[in-house]
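B., you asked whether I could sanity-check this one before it goes into the benchmark set. Here's the sequence:
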Amino acid sequence: MSDYDNFFLPADNLEEAKEFYGRQLGLEVKFDFTDKGMTAFRVGANEPAIILSTRHAQPTIWFTVESVKTAYKDLTSRGISFLSEPFEIMTGYAVEFNDPFGNKLGLTDYSKMGPSS
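And here's what the prediction gave me:
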């Protein structure tokens, strides 16, 4: 794992989430995909964002890796049980798993974004 990616928090009302995180806390919107069930807020100049999602039922931390498929194979061989096979997202691939305490963690890559310059 090379870095944090995003922090997912559940939200059953994205308009209320935008009011709280945007207007009340003063965070800048990074992206707003309300039609896909999520909106994201920047925290300072950090690339990782707080993403409020109607899809995530519990808080989730995602980490970036070079290749989700490679990391999936490696971590499976080390005894990690994933919640699914790697799945495609807009920027690449992702996969999620629980730690021994029930906290949800995930891996993501940016393989659809091409080489970084």
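One thing to flag: Strands lie at 3-10, 29-33, 38-42, 49-53, 60-64, 87-88, 93-98, 104-108. Otherwise nothing jumped out at me.
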